[in-house]
Amino acid sequence: MDNKLMLMIPGPTPVPEQVLLALAQHPIGHRSGEFSAVMAEVTQNLKWLHQTQNDVLVLTVSGTGAMEAGIINFLSPGDRVLVGSNGKFGDRWAKMSAAFGLEVEAITAEWGQPLDPEAFRQKLEADTDKTIKAVIVTHSETSTGVLNDLETINRYVKDHGQALIIVDAVTSVGAVNLPIDEWGIDVVASGSQKGYMIPPGLGFVCVSDKAWQAYETAKLPRFYLDLGSYRKAAQKNSNPFTPPVNLMLGLQTALRMMKAEGLDNIFARHQRLMQATRAAIEALSLPLFAPDNAASPAVTAVAPVSIEAEKIRSVMKKRFDIALAGGQDHFKGKIFRIGHLGFVCDRDILAAIGALEATLRELGYESMTPGAGVSAAARVLTQS
């Protein structure tokens, strides 16, 4: 018989049945009173999720589209920007910024290692003429399973006084505590197929008052991604263009589920799943790619040595219908990644680790004690 596909990748993530049923409804008019009511509720709940009173705008884009909107609406050609780059997506924001004619200075770290906040501090403190217009940082680097120290980097940006901080929070919103108003973060971008528990297709951009001031003088071209248009429409519980109505209905349901669970419980669950996964991987004598002090609650990257990562992924998919993510760019074939964000529970981790143990045995891996991974994960899960 066909097995049930189990997504253990960092996006798209599993979708709850309640959300699937919402997605399956007949569409409603996007200029109707019914849709306006949906928009009003969704907007308020997005602010709750983002821990902000700032605008949280909904775009029909991927996370990359949300990040592009977060860059082009607040900067001008030739602006100097610092871009943190320690993985696929940090590299992408540096390339995107260069494509728009910005003067890019990359602050780098090896893939699998966190960005050094001190490198940002030194650059920002040396900028006495205040020529740095923005600092662009990936919070949870999906490609490597690294969680960068956004709080400290943001503090140095605030000390600078002029620069905006623009954050890729695509795999951290809904998985990691990100108190936007408390920290005073200017622009935060995310995507629907991650912690939001719905399919791909929606991007979200949270914008501070300081960023809106920069918007008034920004000169990069924009039309479909002009956030000013989205802000005006959102004030009327509408959208400037045709939105994916059924995704909005799914988002409405997903946000209700998240509110019922509560922010603290959501963050604690993701932390617990991360710890259980990492404990299991260590018990199986497989090397973890990211260090403990910079591990992302969204995804765990594993760098096997004596067994091929792609063989592990292949057997997991063919034998157990469990999808794991592979490495990207120069780490393709060298690591595999286990996603544990969004609609993922303790049982999913135990099932995935059990299947991983069986896969390793099938591939002739002998550097483990049978059952060690499941036992290690279970200890974490039962202690929490």
TrEMBL record:
Keywords per UniProt: Aminotransferase, Pyridoxal phosphate, Transferase
Pfam families: Aminotran_5
InterPro entries recorded: Aminotrans_V_dom, Aminotrans_V_PyrdxlP_BS, PyrdxlP-dep_Trfase, PyrdxlP-dep_Trfase_major, PyrdxlP-dep_Trfase_small, SP_NH2Trfase/AEP_transaminase
Positions that bind substrate: R337
Cofactor: pyridoxal 5'-phosphate
Record-listed N6-(pyridoxal phosphate)lysine modification sites: K194
Keyword Transferase set for record: yes
GO biological process, one term: glycine biosynthetic process, by transamination of glyoxylate
Residue ranges constituting the Aminotransferase class V domain according to the UniProt record: 22-328
TM region positions: none
GO molecular function: alanine-glyoxylate transaminase activity; L-serine-pyruvate transaminase activity
Sequence similarity: Belongs to the class-V pyridoxal-phosphate-dependent aminotransferase family.
Protein name: Aminotransferase, class V superfamily
Lineage: Bacteria, Bacillati, Cyanobacteriota, Cyanophyceae, Coleofasciculales
